[in-house]
Design brief:
Layout: E1 2-7, E2 13-19, E3 25-30, E4 37-41, E5 46-50, E6 55-59, E7 63-67
Antiparallel strand pairs: 1-2, 2-7, 3-6, 4-5
Length: 68
């Protein structure tokens, strides 16, 4: 799994998480997610809530998620 954070200012930011394996990854966590609150997951068009403890998610094989 690869995760990275990109930004250009306080408003424009994105977190990308990709699974480059044939294994379904469940119960993953990003403990130092850039900010809590509501994020839009762009690939699956859904809103996710990120708490102070980080963000927990599942990532299917050969897939990616983009949070903006």
């Amino acid at each position: 799994m690869l995760a990275y954070y990109r930004w250009s200012d306080e408003v424009t930011r994105a977190v990308v998480v990709a699974n480059f394996s044939a294994a379904y990854l469940s119960g993953n966590s990003i403990p130092k997610f850039p900010a809590g609150g509501s994020w839009h997951e762009w690939m699956y068009n859904k809103i996710v809530e990120v708490g102070e403890e980080g963000f927990k998610f599942d990532l299917p094989e050969w897939s990616a998620q983009v949070f903006v």
